[in-house]
């Protein structure tokens, strides 16, 4: 990983997902003299799952199938 001229780095997606760091999550940086850490801002709840659901809402492409059709397919009917 390389720091850009603007001081930016890309956090790998697997780490972002494990840490619950979705877009618009506030983070804090700490430095102890040797190590830099990044964490969700204090007091911010891990409500990232709800934000993820909201972000994905309405994005499914059902090909014109109704909910009943999709449920029947998942049940093998």
Topology overview:
Layout: H1 13-19, E1 27-31, E2 36-40, H2 48-56, H3 67-75
Antiparallel strand pairs: 1-2
Counted beta strands: 2
The N- and C-terminal alpha carbons lie at a distance of 49 Å
Average pLDDT across residues? Answer: 84
Q: Proportion of β residues?
A: 5-15%
What gyration radius follows from the Cα positions, in whole Å? Answer: 19 Å
Descriptive account of the structure:
The protein has a two-stranded antiparallel ribbon with strand order 1-2. The longest helix is centred in the C-terminal third of the chain and has 9 residues, at 48-56. The protein is elongated and about 60 Å long. The chain has 77 residues and is an alpha+beta fold. It has one domain (13-75). It has helices at 13-19, 48-56, 67-75, and strands at residues 27-31, 36-40.
Features:
elongated; 13% strand; alpha+beta; 77 residues; two-stranded antiparallel ribbon
Short note summarizing the structure:
This protein is α+β, with helices and mostly antiparallel strands. It is 32% helix and 13% strand.
